[in-house]
């Protein structure tokens, strides 16, 4: 194991050195820091050119300057990091990078997690419903989204996701016909997912139609879009639904102890709504994280107390229910800040933002700033999710179909195992092996490829730093961007190898 890590570290360091050297030389050839002075008509033009040449060491060959830059990078290992200076603003690149990388990671992490969960889920369901209407529809949507350019999707999101929705919030009403149409579409989608005989399809269709139409009617009747909230009843019903769903997937509903533990945790989460109103008052990020740990620990304890023939399964399911239930409590508290946020002068009744990562001049509590952060995240996250979702769906579907045709899956069915056990324990885990390579590397790819999205939505992240460096002929910010992306790609590649070993016991990193 240690030999593997050492060898990979050395080879990765060599790749990073060669890549950064080549990019440094190429960028130095492409940019011209003297362009503005060469076109100047100032009487002291020659003196200004000489001063800038001396300032940026342009009379020194680029390989020698690269060694100087590399020395500053090496200082990061001893706490004296020096990535150069953005000479047009006289800012340290490390200061620019610290502020930029946090913005980009916040955007990319959320988009990757959402796209991964949705894409893998839809891909697996599509594989299990092969050659059905749902499968063909998902194939069409995946190829359509995969072919769309991100800048075009971003413009559409601005028009319909922000401007259109903000206009809708001025008078949030839907006609009965629109509500019924949305209910029909939801019914068609859900009956296609569950499949089965005609009777089962009709039951699923009717249930989905009734629930969707009823929820939309309730939201319009109570002016929910302008005064959103969940409340203990909705949290209880949602939590119980999550408890049944997780138990059915992870243990099967016949495991009564696990089901009782999950439902008990969901009931506890709903009961915590009242005391959480006091606990959330005056909260900050540290307090919220502490409450999260306490709630998840409570879920683990409930699973342990219920026990069963497999106590660890009950504990895991209860912990997940507690985690998702706390997310509902957190979302409810954020929603409570919607009315003052919506009516503030900085927002002016148009909460879905199209520019920037935060609203300038907005004042308010921790919950107001959290809500503002989420409203700014919606559009750029959706753009990145739609593009990545298509790839995850195709990969997971193809991998799942390949696994389902393997001999060990047929053997598991021949042994009389339930379909849930065959799919979850035998097929799904093995279908994740190809995705173990894609997901870490895709994160690095999105991190480096969010330049267009950041530019369109005005996020001052790493993409903005990269473009600004090229436009202003500043090589140090560009190299900082390349260094971070290269390092993340190397780490992602290493994590992919480790995930292979975790998912497939036949693979050993020291082989």
What is the compact description of this entry?
This protein is mostly helical.
Could you explain the architecture of this structure?
With 511 residues, the protein is mainly α. It folds into two domains: 2-98 and 446-503, no CATH class; 122-400, no CATH class. 77% of the residues lie in helices and 1% in strands. The protein has helices at 2-30, 35-38, 45-56, 62-74, 93-128, 133-147, 150-170, 176-194, 198-221, 231-250, 256-271, 273-279, 285-306, 311-335, 338-343, 366-404, 407-414, 419-449, 451-457, 462-471, 475-503, and strands spanning 85-86, 91-92. It has a two-stranded antiparallel sheet. Strand 1 (85-86) and strand 2 (91-92) form a beta hairpin. The chain is globular and about 85 Å long. The termini are close together. The model has no long low-confidence stretch (mean pLDDT 86).
**Count of individual helical segments:** 21
How big a fraction of the residues is strand? under 5%
Mean pLDDT: 86
Task: Identify the strand order in the major beta sheet.
Answer: 1-2
Distance between the termini: 9 Å
Report the order of strands and helices.
HHHHEEHHHHHHHHHHHHHHHHH
Number of strands: 2
Shape: globular
Q: From the alpha carbons, calculate the radius of gyration and give it in angstroms.
A: 27 Å
Largest sheet: 2 strands, antiparallel
How helical, in percent, are the residues? Answer: over 70%
């Amino acid at each position: 194991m240690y030999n593997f890590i050492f060898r990979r570290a050395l080879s990765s360091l060599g790749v990073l050195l060669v890549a950064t050297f080549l990019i440094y030389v190429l960028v130095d050839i492409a940019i011209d820091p003297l362009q503005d002075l060469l076109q100047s008509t100032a009487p002291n033009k020659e003196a200004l050119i000489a001063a800038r040449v001396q300032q940026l060491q342009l009379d020194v060959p680029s390989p020698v300057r690269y060694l100087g830059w590399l020395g500053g990078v090496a200082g990061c290992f001893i706490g004296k990091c020096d990535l150069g200076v953005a000479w047009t603003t006289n800012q340290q690149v490390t200061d620019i990078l610290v502020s930029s990388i946090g913005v980009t990671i916040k955007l990319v992490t959320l988009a990757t997690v959402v796209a991964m969960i949705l894409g893998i889920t839809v891909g697996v369901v599509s594989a299990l419903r092969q050659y059905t209407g749902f499968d063909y529809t998902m194939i069409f949507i995946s190829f359509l989204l995969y072919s769309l350019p991100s800048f075009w999707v971003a413009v559409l999101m601005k028009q319909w996701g922000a401007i259109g929705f903000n206009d809708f919030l001025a008078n949030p009403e839907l006609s009965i016909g629109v509500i019924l149409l949305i209910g029909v579409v939801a019914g068609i989608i859900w009956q296609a997912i569950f499949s089965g005989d005609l009777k089962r399809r009709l039951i699923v269709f009717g249930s989905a139609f009734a629930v969707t139409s009823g929820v939309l009617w309730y939201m319009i009747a109570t002016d929910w879009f302008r005064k959103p909230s969940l409340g203990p009843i909705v949290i209880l019903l949602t939590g119980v639904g999550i408890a049944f769903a997780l138990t059915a997937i992870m243990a099967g509903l016949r495991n009564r102890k696990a089901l009782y533990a999950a439902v008990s945790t969901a009931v506890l989460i709903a009961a915590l709504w009242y005391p959480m109103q006091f606990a959330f008052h005056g909260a900050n990020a540290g307090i919220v994280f502490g409450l999260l740990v306490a709630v998840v620990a409570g879920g683990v304890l409930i699973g342990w107390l219920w026990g069963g023939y497999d106590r660890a399964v009950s504990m895991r399911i209860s912990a997940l229910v507690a985690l998702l239930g706390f997310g509902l409590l957190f979302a409810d508290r954020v929603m409570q800040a919607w009315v003052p946020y919506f009516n503030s002068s900085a927002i002016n009744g148009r909460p879905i933002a199209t520019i920037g990562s935060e609203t300038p001049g907005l004042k308010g509590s921790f919950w107001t700033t959290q809500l503002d952060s989420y409203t700014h995240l919606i559009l750029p996250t959706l753009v990145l999710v739609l593009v990545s979702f298509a790839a995850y769906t195709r990969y997971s579907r193809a991998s799942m179909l390949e696994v389902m045709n393997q001999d060990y899956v047929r053997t598991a069915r021949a042994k009389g195992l339930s379909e849930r056990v065959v799919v979850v324990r035998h097929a799904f885990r093995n279908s994740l092996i190809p995705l173990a390579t894609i997901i870490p590397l895709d994160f690095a790819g999105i991190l480096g490829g969010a330049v267009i999205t950041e530019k369109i939505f005005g996020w001052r992240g790493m993409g903005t730093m990269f473009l600004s460096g090229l436009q202003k002929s500043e090589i140090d910010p560009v190299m900082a961007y390349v260094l971070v992306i290269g390092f993340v790609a190397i780490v992602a590649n290493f994590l992919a190898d480790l995930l292979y070993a975790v998912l497939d016991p036949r693979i050993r990193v020291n082989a």
